[in-house]
Structure formats: C-alpha cells, structure tokens
C-alpha cells in the first residue's frame, strides 16, 4: 500500500522509501543491510515527508512541527542533507525552491524491517572503530594523549640521566665533596 497523497496514513511508522526501510518508533533506518539510528528530529523530518509523500512540505511547517521554537533554516538544511545520505539517493528528496521539500518516490507501508546482514567479528570491530573516528573531539584528544605519552617515554628518561651526569660531574671537577650523613 502506498500513501503518497496528502490524505495518506499519518499513523504509519514503518515504511519504505526507495531501498531504505524506516521504523520511526525505533528511530532506525535500514539500507543495504546496515542499520542507522535516527535522531528524534531527523525522524520527525522523515515522518513529515513520508506523511505528505510527493506533496510539498514548507520550510515553515518543518520548523514549526519538528523544531518548534528553536529551529533554524540551517538546522533544516543539515537534516535534509543527512537524510539524503542515509537514504542513499539524493534524488529521493526533492528541493522545491521558495517552497520546501517533497519526496520524489512513493512511500510504501512496511510491516517489518529487513534483517541486517550478518557481520563477522572483524567487521563489527571495524565499524565501532570507525565510529570513533567520526567524533573529532575524542579522536583529537586520544591522539594528543598518545603523542604526549610517546614523547614523554622517549625524552623523559634521557633528560633525567643527562641532568644527573651534569650535576655529579661538576661536583667532582670542582673538588666539592658531599658530607656524609653520619657526621
């Protein structure tokens, strides 16, 4: 069943757009066997587009419905851009200049989501490792700590040894003797 008309089934929370399957209650989108989490506002934008189908949704309507009072055009632009990437086909969301956005493909209701493709332990590890790289602050912090630790381990012991040699060598040359602690 498709619900691409303005009078479509507004209660539908599981649907398919192109090759992507969406579950708005679980806030997930599955495409090519990969599951992607949807932030609540991103899910709201997708739900509004799916309810309208090929009919346009105005920018003001997105901002009022999804963001309420703290939305901006830039936030909407970023959400649409992210949805286009997640859907895997930028042409699925049409930009209507001075109006808003609409879907260019019919929305089909889905009862269940496809099972994600099985992954090996290495693929799972690789996916979580690459997720770390997508967080620039944490990546920068980790690299900074590693570089600091490496530099400290390389230069710190040599610096202490050199200072100790200079200190003890100067005393012997000058003829200074240290008093014994027993006196």
Automatic annotation (TrEMBL):
UniProt KW keywords: DNA-binding, Membrane, Transmembrane, Transmembrane helix
Domain OmpR/PhoB-type: 12-105
Matches recorded under InterPro entries: OmpR/PhoB-type_DNA-bd (IPR001867), Sig_transdc_resp-reg_C-effctor (IPR016032), WH-like_DNA-bd_sf (IPR036388)
SMART domains assigned to the protein according to its UniProt record, in alphabetical order: Trans_reg_C
Transmembrane residue ranges: 137-156
DNA-binding region: 12-105
GO biological process: phosphorelay signal transduction system; regulation of DNA-templated transcription
SUPFAM superfamilies: C-terminal effector domain of the bipartite response regulators (SSF46894)
GO terms of molecular function: DNA binding
Gene3D superfamilies recorded: Winged helix-like DNA-binding domain superfamily/Winged helix DNA-binding domain (1.10.10.10)
Signal peptide segment: none
PROSITE patterns linked to this entry: OMPR_PHOB
Entries under Pfam families matching the protein: Trans_reg_C
Protein name, per record: Lysine decarboxylase transcriptional regulator, CadC
Organism, scientific name: Maricaulis maris (strain MCS10)
């Amino acid at each position: 069943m498709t619900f691409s008309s303005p009078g479509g089934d507004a209660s539908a929370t599981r649907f398919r757009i192109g090759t992507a399957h969406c579950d708005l209650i679980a806030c997930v989108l599955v495409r090519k066997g990969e599951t992607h989490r949807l932030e609540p506002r991103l899910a709201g934008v997708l739900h509004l587009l799916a309810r309208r189908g090929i009919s346009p949704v105005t920018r003001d309507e997105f901002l009022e419905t999804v963001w309420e009072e703290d939305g901006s055009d830039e936030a909407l632009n970023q959400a649409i851009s992210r949805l286009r990437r997640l859907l895997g086909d930028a042409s699925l969301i049409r930009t209507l200049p001075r109006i808003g956005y609409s879907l260019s493909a019919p929305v089909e209701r889905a009862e269940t989501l496809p099972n994600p493709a099985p992954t090996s332990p290495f693929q799972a590890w690789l996916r979580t490792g690459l997720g770390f790289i997508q967080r620039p602050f944490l990546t920068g912090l980790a690299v900074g700590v590693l570089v600091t630790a490496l530099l400290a381990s390389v230069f710190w012991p040599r610096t202490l040894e050199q200072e100790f040699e200079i200190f003890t060598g100067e005393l012997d040359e000058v003829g200074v003797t240290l008093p014994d602690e027993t006196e």
